[in-house]
């Protein structure tokens, strides 16, 4: 499948691996893919990220990802659902961190199972994003997978990355409109 990636999509995947290595993460995650997309210059995804103001709010994105890792990777929807059951995730995180240190529930660090192969694996979620990027590309009639397809796949996949994007005004629809213009919605309305 990697042969179907454009230059910017390949650079994004390679950048995600570098980000995972520099963060000493066990695996490459969806978060690493998004942060690597933010590093790319040129292309539709880069334009959309700039148009949505995400390039200027990298510190805010990092803070949101740090907070999600502190919650053990729970999404806002997970946290809200647990709150509906009377479970205060914030209180639990505080108690665990009080007993075991700050970041005790943080995901993605640990046993370094990848050391023997020399390659960090991709999490199932990151693999799903890559596979969905192919589906997005094919659905748009594109033969190759570009950064824009990766960004749309990240925005569409339920989880922490989509939550953080939504919190920053980058819903799937907003990303699609930023890349393809308002006609992206018109074409969809006519088709449906």
Automatic annotation (TrEMBL):
<protein>
    <submittedName>
        <fullName>Peptidase</fullName>
    </submittedName>
</protein>
<keyword id="KW-0677">Repeat</keyword>
<feature type="domain" description="Clp R">
    <location>
        <begin position="2"/>
        <end position="185"/>
    </location>
</feature>
<dbReference type="InterPro" id="IPR004176">
    <property type="entry name" value="Clp_R_N"/>
</dbReference>
<dbReference type="Pfam" id="PF02861">
    <property type="entry name" value="Clp_N"/>
</dbReference>
<dbReference type="InterPro" id="IPR036628">
    <property type="entry name" value="Clp_N_dom_sf"/>
</dbReference>
């Amino acid at each position: 499948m990697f042969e179907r990636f454009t230059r910017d999509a390949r650079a994004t995947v390679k950048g995600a691996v570098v980000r995972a290595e520099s963060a000493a993460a066990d695996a490459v995650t969806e978060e690493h893919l998004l942060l690597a997309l933010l590093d790319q210059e040129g292309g539709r995804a880069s334009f959309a990220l700039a148009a949505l103001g995400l390039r200027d709010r990298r510190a805010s994105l990092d803070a949101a990802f740090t907070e999600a890792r502190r919650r053990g990777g729970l999404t806002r929807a997970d946290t809200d659902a647990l709150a509906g059951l009377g479970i205060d995730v914030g209180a639990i995180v505080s108690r665990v961190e009080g007993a075991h240190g700050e970041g005790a529930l943080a995901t993605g660090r640990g046993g370094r199972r990848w050391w023997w192969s020399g390659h960090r694996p991709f999490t199932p979620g990151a693999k799903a994003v890559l596979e969905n990027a192919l589906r997005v590309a094919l659905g748009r009639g594109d033969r190759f997978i570009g950064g824009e397809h990766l960004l749309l796949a990240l925005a569409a996949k339920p989880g922490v990355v989509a939550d953080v994007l939504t919190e920053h005004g980058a819903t799937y629809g907003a990303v699609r409109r930023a890349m393809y213009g308002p006609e992206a919605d018109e074409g969809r309305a006519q088709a449906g």
